[in-house]
């Protein structure tokens, strides 16, 4: 009987440790992703942003699985990390739109110059 109790206690402890490691792993993934965006997002193209968006959703779903296990301090850290990621992603989207707009304006200038040259020859 004593061995059974010890086995149950050890099993419960192992489950608790596995749960802590999993919830901490989710925070670590979010932190790592935030660093990845901070360091590399300025070089992302549209395909990279699509991958980043999918990865962010996957990570946040993993974090949400453990939302009731986090302490208030951990929740504050998660919120800060999610905010950082969202900020990097918003800046990247803005930069992408700005780059596309610049390309369109340059193309439009070329079209107007071509039309002007064509009519200038008449």
Please give a quick description of this structure.
With 122 residues, the chain is mainly alpha-helical.
Structural class: mainly alpha
What is the typical, i.e. mean, pLDDT? 80
How many whole angstroms does the radius of gyration measure?
25 Å
Binned, the helix content reads over 70%
Q: Helix count, per DSSP?
A: 3
Compile the SSE list and pairings.
Elements lengths: L1 H39 L5 H19 L7 H49 L2
Helix pairs in contact: 1-2, 1-3, 2-3
How does this model look, in words?
With 122 residues, this protein is mostly helical. It is rod-shaped, with a radius of gyration of 25 Å. The protein has 3 helices and no strands. Helix content is 88%, strand content 0%. Helix 1 (2-40) packs antiparallel against helix 2, helix 1 (2-40) runs parallel beside helix 3 (72-120) and helix 2 packs antiparallel against helix 3. The chain has helices at residues 2-40, 46-64, 72-120.
Descriptive labels:
0% strand, 122 residues
